[in-house]
């Protein structure tokens, strides 16, 4: 389709991955009837399946490197998605803070649910997310706008992602030049 980027490479990657996954079934299917009697019924399977799997993996990884080499982050689009959906991700934290301030969990859950559904309907109509404003304006909700915004730092919702990425990169054992070429990790 004309609007897709890298469709042929991505579709080739998918096709090669499917070939490798399907080929991986050859070994257990052969073993299921072979009884490990040192027969030759698996020799053709080995001669074809193993080299093809390595070649297909190599081709898929090369295509993935080409696609990944051209990736770029559209920061404005990411910022908009965060602005639209972070309020929904934060509802559990808002609920817990409301309970800490003396609110009834069931009642606060219902308030958040009701406002979340209304904000979602509004977004489906093309309007921006107004969940936070709805909650701040609700007299039955124990947090005001400033208290709500204080709980909405996007970095607080990344969990261990940065730590896991650092550990993964360390496990790659890159040389100094390769490591220096990587962009810094920021949250």
Which features does this protein show?
187 residues, 2 domains, single chain, Ribonucleotide Reductase Protein R1, domain 1, mainly alpha
Describe this structure as you would to a colleague.
- InterPro entries: AdenyloSucc_lyase_C, L-Aspartase-like.
- GO terms for molecular function: (S)-2-(5-amino-1-(5-phospho-D-ribosyl)imidazole-4-carboxamido) succinate lyase (fumarate-forming) activity; N6-(1,2-dicarboxyethyl)AMP AMP-lyase (fumarate-forming) activity.
- It comes from Candidatus Aphodomorpha intestinavium.
- This protein is an all-alpha fold and about 190 residues long.
- It starts with 6 loop residues before the first helix and ends in a 6-residue tail after the last helix.
- It is elongated and about 80 Å long.
- About 10% of the residues are buried.
- The chain has ten helices and no strands.
- Helix 1 runs antiparallel to helix 3 and helix 5 runs antiparallel to helix 6.
- It has two domains: about 60 residues; about 80 residues, Fumarase/aspartase (C-terminal domain) (Ribonucleotide Reductase Protein R1, domain 1, Orthogonal Bundle).
Task: Detail the topology: elements first, then pairings.
Blueprint: H1 7-23, H2 26-34, H3 43-69, H4 75-89, H5 91-100, H6 105-124, H7 131-137, H8 145-150, H9 161-171, H10 176-181
């Amino acid at each position: 389709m004309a609007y897709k980027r890298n469709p042929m490479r991505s579709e080739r990657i998918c096709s090669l991955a499917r070939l490798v996954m399907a080929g991986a079934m050859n070994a257990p299917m052969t073993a299921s009837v072979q009884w490990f009697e040192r027969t030759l019924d698996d020799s053709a399977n080995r001669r074809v399946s193993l080299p093809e799997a390595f070649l297909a993996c190599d081709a898929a990884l090369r295509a993935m490197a080409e696609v990944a080499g051209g990736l770029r982050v559209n920061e404005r689009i990411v910022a908009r998605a965060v602005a639209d959906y972070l309020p929904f991700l934060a509802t559990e934290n808002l609920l817990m803070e409301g309970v800490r301030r003396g609110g009834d969990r069931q009642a606060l859950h219902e308030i958040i649910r009701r406002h979340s559904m209304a904000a979602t309907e509004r977004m489906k109509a093309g309007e921006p997310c107004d969940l936070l404003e709805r909650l701040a304006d609700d007299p039955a909700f124990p947090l005001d706008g400033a208290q709500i915004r204080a709980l909405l730092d996007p970095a607080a919702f990344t969990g261990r992602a940065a730590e896991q990425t650092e550990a993964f990169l360390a496990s790659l054992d890159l040389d100094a030049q390769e490591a220096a070429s990587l962009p810094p990790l920021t949250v």
